[in-house]
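Predict the 3D structure for this chain.
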Amino acid sequence: MSPKLPHACEDMRRAHEDPRTPLIYAPRVREYGIKIEDSWAKRTLEYCPWCGQRLPASLRDEWCERIFALGHEIIDEDIPAPYDSDEWWRDDTKFSHGERP
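Done. Predicted structure below.
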């Protein structure tokens, strides 16, 4: 099942659902990107390539800070719930409404 996208104009939603499109979305850090060829690398997007709307801010820095504060490393396999998904920011009104950290 596809994650719930915080921004999804019709064209982006279609592109995200199409496996041929290199659009990726990382739910736990609320980050959109374009996958670069067959590598792990990506180019982060700040604006929707289809409608031009500014995308919600990435929460990568905030997520890392919280993970470190819990005594974990970002590469740990046992990241505590809700930080192993988008649940942590969807439940936090500061972030769920797109407010910039």
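Residues 10-95 form one domain.
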